[in-house]
Amino acid sequence: MSETVTLPRPDDWHLHLRDGAMLTAVAPESARHFGRAIIMPNLVPPVVTGADAAAYRDRIMAALPAGSRFTPLMTLYLTEETDPADVVAAHESGLVTAVKLYPAGATTNSASGVRDFTRVHGVLEAMAEAGVPLCVHGEVTDPEIDIFDREAVFIERVLDPIRHATPGLRVVMEHITTQDGVAYVREGGPDIAGTITAHHLVINRNHLLVGGIRPHYYCLPVAKREAHRLALRAAATGDCDRFFLGTDSAPHPDGAKESACGCAGCFTAPNALSIVAQVFEQEGALDRLEAFVSRNGPAFYGLPVNEDTLTLARQDAPVAYPDRIDAGGEDVTVFDPGFPLHWQVT
Ligand code: NCD
Ligand code: ZN
Questions:
Q1: From 3.40.1570.10, 3.20.20.80, 3.20.20.140, 2.40.110.10, which CATH number describes the 4-345 domain?
Q2: Is 248 in the pocket of ligand 1 (CB under 6 A)?
Q3: Residue 264 near ligand 1, beta carbon < 6 Å
Q4: Does any ligand 1 atom lie closer than 6 A to the CB of residue 42?
Q5: Catalytic entry in 12, 180, 248, 336
């Protein structure tokens, strides 16, 4: 008999679903396994107002397979013009779960992000008061800061000052990639959490750059050196309940990735749970998987754990995932963890 693990249905606390043909292609890939997902607002143009979020949520619902119970948890893209009253109303009505902070220019489609953090102080105060969590892309964009240091410098220059200036603000430091991020979340008390992707648990910067440049391993924040990857694995499998899965599955057409200026993002929605289960098995921590993928996220967001379940079964033969999927005539490569996966979602 094969080994199995049954969990409350996992959620994805950081997901890019895009729009149009890409949305139609990728939404079923997340809905197949996950109960809910925090939906990133970095469309072009971004999802800025409650009205934008309502319209985007309708388009997501229309892209789901018939009978799907997947629930998109919408976010608003914070700009220097964001109206605090609109944010609070959208949250109170249940339409919007969180607000996303992108430093301007930090990553794909972040041109409308925040340049001057003092200009969003009023919104952040209103959010702290109303209990609206802030999801943060934690990288500075100062050209003088080395790309591998941008997360650590962000903590010191931006995140810590924001948190001191806005007591009570609940913050999710998303897709953390460093020992610094792990330590900041772990020591930061009950108002801060960190999401970790499947891919950052399995690749370091050598995977990206040794023996040829691998565009499908390029994402932001960029994968760091091995010691950081190990810290992420220890955090994900450890005893702090403020770390949870946010895949940051970020599909791009292959032509945009395999390019002289390839864009950032790994498409992991199809196989993220198989990858994470295997990591937990390798770490001898399968008993902690449920906390990381099913329980810690809802606990931080103040939401119930999903009532239905998902079972992963370990099989001897590798699980077959497609190398790529079709999105309206364009290929999107599925993240290759670089080793065979043995945990199948049944
Ligand atoms: C994301 C995208 O493509 O939208 N890319 C990525 O590398 N993660 C943006 C982001 O979350 O940084
Ligand atoms: Zn992202």
A1: 3.20.20.140
A2: yes
A3: yes
A4: yes
A5: 248
CB atoms within 10 A of CB 130: 13
Query: 151 CB contacts (<8 Å, ≥6 apart)?
Result: 138, 139, 176, 177, 178, 180, 181, 221
Closest atom, ligand 1, to C-alpha of 219: 7
Encoded amino acid at 48, one letter: V
- Nearby residues of 119 by Cβ (< 8 Å), 6 or more positions away: 80
108 lines ligand 1 (CB under 6 A): yes
pLDDT tens-digit series, residues 211-244: 999 999 999 999 999 999 999 999 999 999 999 9
Site to probe by mutation for ligand 1, drawn from 75, 197, 218, 248 as the one with most ligand atoms within 8 Å of Cβ, is 248
Give which of 59, 37, 112 is closest to 82, Cα–Cα.
Answer: 112
Shortest CA distance to 43 belongs to which of 62, 18, 21?
Answer: 18
Supply angle C-alpha 239, 242, 244, rounded to 5: 95
Percent of the chain scoring above 70 in pLDDT:
99
The reply to whether 11 belongs to the active site is: no
Instruction: Return the ligand 1 atom nearest residue 106 CA.
Output: 12
The domain spans of the chain are 4-345
pTM of the predicted model as reported, rounded to 2 decimal places: 0.97
> For residue range 290-306, what is the model confidence (pLDDT) as tens digits?
999 999 999 999 999 99
Burial environment of residue 106 by CB neighbours within 10 A (0 to 12, 13 to 18, 19 or more):
buried
- Report the C-alpha gap between 27 and 77 in whole angstroms: 20
